[in-house]
Amino acid sequence: MNESDAFEKLYEAQSKFYKFKKPCVGLQWKGSDICADFHCKCGAHGHIDADFVYYYKCAKCGRIYSMPGWMPLMELPPDLIEALDVSGRDGLVHEDPQVRNEE
Length: 103
What we know:
The protein is an alpha+beta fold. The protein has one domain (3-88). It has helices spanning 3-19, 78-84; strands at residues 24-26, 33-39, 45-51, 55-57, 64-66, 70-72.
């Protein structure tokens, strides 16, 4: 399999795994730095601070994971919105002015 076909296959697999579990958000990795905690299915967990992280390899079992192109969203309940004063935090709460409905 050539690299182009491999990336297409990876994108399709990520879309099936994440995209249709709504609500969700699509991510566009721009090669920037990440600070992340990873939890592997083998039970190991680790932390990295690095640039250009597109894949993660578990130091215990060697499994390799791709960084997701889609992530689930967690809706905040009204009491947390009020307690955290989320609605009043200009610059932190973003709203898409071009909302599109999915059919």
